[in-house]
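User: Can you predict the 3D structure of Integrase catalytic domain-containing protein? Sequence below.
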Amino acid sequence: MLCDAADVSESGYYVWRNRADRATTEREARRLELSETICEIFHRCKSRYGYRRIHAELLRDDWVVSDRTVRVIMGEHGLVSCHPRPWRYCTKADGTPPASDLIRRDFNATEPGVRFVGDITQIDTWAGPGYLATVIDLFNREVVGWAIADHHRTDLICDAIRMAKRNKRIKRRAIFHSDRGSEYTSRQFRRCLKEARMRPSMGRVGTVR
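Assistant: Sure. Here are the predicted structure tokens for Integrase catalytic domain-containing protein:
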């Protein structure tokens, strides 16, 4: 009845329906392949690419797709790019006279517990930046003290020194070498070194060398 009403043959109707079904299946297969490719690019670039950069990658791979489609598919899969902030030195000189350089670029030690180096490293996380302070024995490059916090105040490096004091036999008048950051030139840190029977030594800003 429908074929008669539309003035089409029954065989023509089935040819049209099968062609439409096949086109739908092909579209679904292509979209599935596109989704898998987008996810692969996103994870390969460590979640840093947004939809525009992923769209550019797809065009380079000869995909014919709009950036809007890429954005929609990323939304369907919950793919949200992250934009890490540029790395910066934690070091901030505060005008306090630095200690003398007792190391003089000789980063070796003939015995344990006499020469140490330390620094603060910023670690970016999803929850925000974290800071790691370390104390390393130059005799064998062993990390003998460390501390982690969400700040890089002097308390952080003092905690690392105290751990080193607990973990390692520090000889009297041992050297602790660092950069000239305000944390290392503070009176609080000088008192901490004195309690650990250590002498401060400093290199130029931004490096322990």
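The chain has two domains: 2-76, 84-209. The first helix runs from residue 2 to 6.
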